[in-house]
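Example for tutorial group B:
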């Protein structure tokens, strides 16, 4: 025995368990334009590479409109949230089947700071586009075709007055 009260030991074990601890907070911000090379490789900006760490995960974004690159701890947190939803829901299972089919863990940059976007996710999300925008998306890096980025910007600009009103009402506590 280690001399600790068993109840105290249980509380400490949960707090000390790395699987239970929150991942360190990493925030990705900024936007960069790059092009994929002929092999599907993409240079990741240095500021993002440092925050992604040695190993990271490539997956579809939540809405399958872009490619997301997650630091491994954030990837694990995302998976844990899906696991908490349970696996008895057929619609959720169908979503997760597609999500995991296009997900790749244990990825890394090569010596020149490039990542290889696997062909499956690259063709389904980016189609044949080579010019992309790499943006910070808070807890991950977002990769979207330059054309989709322009379209998204145009939609955002059209929605902006309504978004500003919604933000104002939230600030007023409505």
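The residue assignment follows.
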């Amino acid at each position: 025995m280690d001399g600790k009260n068993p109840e105290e030991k249980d509380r400490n074990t949960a707090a000390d368990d790395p699987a239970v601890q929150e991942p360190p907070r990493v925030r990705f911000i900024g936007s960069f334009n790059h092009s994929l090379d002929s092999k599907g490789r993409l240079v990741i900006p240095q500021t993002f590479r440092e925050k992604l760490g040695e190993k990271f995960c490539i997956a579809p974004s939540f809405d399958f409109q872009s490619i997301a690159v997650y630091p491994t701890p954030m990837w694990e947190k995302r998976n844990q949230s899906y696991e908490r939803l349970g696996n008895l829901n057929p619609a959720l299972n169908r979503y997760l089947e597609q999500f995991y089919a296009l997900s790749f863990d244990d990825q890394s940059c090569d010596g020149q700071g490039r990542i290889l976007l696997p062909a499956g996710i690259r063709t389904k999300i980016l189609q044949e586009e080579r010019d992309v925008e790499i943006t910070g998306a808070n807890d991950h890096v977002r990769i979207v075709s330059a054309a989709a980025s322009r379209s998204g910007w145009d939609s955002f600009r059209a929605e902006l007055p309504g978004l500003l009103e919604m933000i104002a009402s939230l600030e007023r506590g409505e």
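The longest strand covers residues 131-136. Compare this with the pattern of hydrophobic and polar residues in the output above.
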